[in-house]
Amino acid sequence: MRGTAAEPQDWAVDWLSKPRLATYVAAAGPSGALERYAWNCCASTALFELIGWFEVAWRNSIDRAICARRGEDAPHWLFDRSFPLRPTTWAKVDAAVRTVRCRVKRRRQFIAELTLGFWRMRPGRRSRRRWIGSSTGSSSCATGSRIADRGRAGAQRSAVS
Fold this sequence. Notes:
Elements: H1 10-16, H2 18-28, H3 33-70, H4 87-99, H5 107-113, H6 128-132, H7 143-160
Helix pairs in contact: 1-2, 2-3
């Protein structure tokens, strides 16, 4: 059964609920509510894809920066309890280690198991200098600003081309 000019089709109301559709009806009118809802779904899907790409790039950049700072001979920071992480952050590492269930465990598997929230990690005040760099302000872990700089440089090159 089709909806009236005053409301969307019955199936849409059954699936999504009147209160949920009310926002879309208010924005696009009864006849445009479902189209607006579908557009919102597409926009959300695209955003989540971008968040996924960002998450992978972010965690790999942090891992590379920490590893470069520690040197090749040092154990990987995820397996070195002297690395300055807070107890709650170490608990997340431990959970990732328990989740990876294969005979040959590789660090990239553990990196992938850590959620986006993990990468908000910050060291305590006493270990901050050791973790991110010297007191001169240089930081091998300041990957966010480097990524932004690369993006700006790429945009400038595109504008010139």
